[in-house]
Specification:
The chain is mainly alpha-helical. It folds into two domains: about 5-185, Growth Hormone, Chain: A, CATH 1.20.1250.20; about 200-385, MFS general substrate transporter like domains (Growth Hormone, Chain: A). The chain has helices at about 5-25, 35-40, 45-75, 75-95, 100-130, 135-160, 165-185, 205-210, 215-235, 235-245, 250, 255-270, 280-300, 305-330, 335-345, 345-360, 365-385, and strands at about 200, 395-400. Helix 3 (about 45-75) runs antiparallel to helix 16 (about 345-360). The termini are close together.
C-alpha cells in the first residue's frame, strides 16, 4: 500500500475515532436524569444515582474484553455493534418501570456498549500513530471528555423540549448514528515492522505482562489516579457545601472548574508525554493530585483554594487517563495493548466505587481523603522508580514505530 493511501486511512481512522469517542463520552451526562428518574420510579435519588456506578464498572469490564472482540471481528464491526447496543440500551431505558430494569438497561448494557467502543477504538488509533502516541491519545480522550460537555447541552435541550422518555430515545439515536459512522471510517491498524535504528520494546501478551511486577505497580498507580479523580469529581459540589461551607451556587461552580481543568490536563499532559518519559508525566500528574488532596486535608479553605484543590485533582485525573494507554505500550509493547491496558483499566471501575465505599464505611470526606493521600504517596514513589520491562537476548522484540500496511 502506498504512503499516500496509508496516510488517508490513518486520518480517516483518527476522525472516526474522535467522532465515536465524542458520542461515547455522552454517558457522563447521567446526573441530568437522576432527579426525574427518581420521581418516575418513586425511588430514592441515591438508588437511582447508583446506576452510574454500575455503568462505570460495566464499562471497565467491557474495555478489558474488547481486545478479544477486535481480534475476532475487527474494529469496524465491533464499533458498529457497540453503537447498535448503545442506541438500543438507551431506547429500552426510556421504558423502565422499576429500579432493576434501570440497573440492567442503563447500567449494565449502556456501560458494556460504551466500554466496548472506548478502549478498543482508542488503542487502535494509537497504533496507527506510534510516533505521536501521546498527542493521539489527547485528541481521542479529549473528544471523550468534550462529548460529556456537548451532550450536556444537547440532553438539557431535549429534556426541556420532549421530556424524559423521548430524550432517552433521541439520545440513543444520535449517539448510535455517530458511533456507527465513526466505525465505518475506521480500519484495523497493521502490525509494526522493524526499522533499522529504531528503539525496540518487548511485545508481551497479557499473561506475560501479568508475571512482571511492573504490571501490578502500574495497575495500582492507575487505580489511585482514578479513585482520587472520580471520587472528588463526583462529590465536588457536596465537598464545597458541607466541608468547605460554601453556598450552593458557589460550590456548584466547581463543576465548571473541573471540566476545564480535566480537559486542560488531557491536552497538556498528553502533548508533554511525547516529549519526555511518560512515567515521569504520570509522576507530575500524581504530584498535582497530591497537592489538591493536601489542600483539602491540611489548609483552611476558602472559595479560591477549594477551586484550586479540585482543579489540581481534575488535571491529574484527565492527564493520567490520557497518558496511560501510551505508557502501557511503553512497558509492554503495542501489539497487545488493548488486552494489557484493558485489565489495568478495571481500576477505573474499581476506583469509581472504592472512594464511595470508603466514605460510607469510615465516615465521609476526611477518611476518604486520608486513604487517597496514602495511596498517592505510595504511587508517586512507585512512579519514580518504575522502568520498562527489559528484553533479554532470547526474547523477540518489535519496534514501536514505522507502520506499514500490506
Amino acid at each position: 500500500m502506498d504512503q499516500s493511501n496509508t496516510n488517508r486511512i490513518r486520518i480517516m481512522t483518527l476522525l472516526g475515532t474522535i467522532l465515536t469517542q465524542f458520542a461515547l463520552g455522552s454517558v457522563y451526562t447521567w446526573s441530568l436524569f437522576n432527579a426525574e428518574l427518581s420521581s418516575k420510579l418513586n425511588e430514592p435519588l441515591s438508588s437511582v444515582a447508583f446506576t452510574f456506578g454500575i455503568l462505570t464498572l460495566s464499562l471497565a469490564v467491557a474495555s478489558s474484553l474488547s481486545g478479544k472482540m477486535q481480534e475476532r471481528f475487527g474494529v469496524k464491526a465491533v464499533t458498529i455493534a457497540a453503537g447498535l447496543l448503545l442506541g438500543g440500551s438507551f431506547f429500552l431505558t426510556a421504558y423502565v418501570s422499576n429500579l432493576m430494569m434501570l440497573y440492567i438497561f442503563a447500567g449494565l448494557l449502556v456501560g458494556f456498549a460504551d466500554g466496548t467502543g472506548y478502549l478498543m477504538t482508542l488503542s487502535n488509533c494509537v497504533k496507527w500513530f506510534p510516533e505521536r502516541k501521546g498527542l493521539i491519545s489527547a485528541f481521542s480522550i479529549g473528544a471523550y471528555g468534550l462529548g460529556s460537555l456537548g451532550f450536556k447541552f444537547i440532553n438539557t435541550k431535549l429534556l426541556g423540549a420532549f421530556g424524559l422518555s423521548a430524550t432517552f430515545q433521541l439520545w440513543g439515536v444520535i449517539a448510535m448514528l455517530m458511533v456507527i459512522l465513526g466505525g465505518l471510517m475506521m480500519t484495523d491498524a497493521p502490525k509494526q515492522q522493524l526499522v533499522k535504528g529504531v528503539n525496540r520494546v518487548r511485545n508481551l501478551t497479557l499473561p506475560q505482562a501479568m508475571r512482571t511486577p511492573q504490571f501490578w505497580m502500574l495497575a495500582l498507580i492507575f487505580l489511585t489516579a482514578c479513585m482520587s479523580g472520580l471520587y472528588v469529581i463526583g462529590v465536588a459540589k457536596d465537598i464545597g457545601e458541607n466541608y468547605v461551607h460554601l453556598t450552593t451556587s458557589v460550590a456548584a461552580n466547581a463543576v465548571a472548574v473541573i471540566a476545564i481543568a480535566n480537559l486542560g490536563g488531557r491536552l497538556a499532559l498528553g502533548v508533554l508525554s511525547d516529549k519526555m518519559l511518560r512515567i515521569r508525566v504520570i509522576s507530575i500528574a500524581l504530584t498535582f493530585s497530591l497537592v489538591g488532596i493536601c489542600l483539602l486535608l491540611f489548609v483552611p479553605l476558602n472559595e479560591s483554594l477549594f477551586y484550586l484543590a479540585v482543579a489540581c485533582i481534575a488535571i491529574s485525573f484527565g492527564g493520567s487517563i490520557t497518558v496511560y494507554p501510551s505508557l502501557v505500550s511503553d512497558f509492554f509493547g503495542l501489539e497487545h495493548l488493548t488486552k494489557n491496558y484493558g485489565l489495568i483499566y478495571l481500576g477505573f471501575g474499581i476506583g469509581s466505587l472504592l472512594g464511595s465505599i470508603v466514605a460510607s464505611l469510615f465516615g465521609g470526606f476526611i477518611a476518604t481523603f486520608w486513604v487517597i493521600f496514602s495511596l498517592l504517596v505510595i504511587s508517586l514513589l512507585l512512579s519514580l522508580t518504575l522502568t520498562p520491562v527489559r528484553s533479554s537476548a532470547k526474547e523477540p522484540v518489535t519496534p514501536e514505530v514505522a507502520i506499514s500496511a500490506s
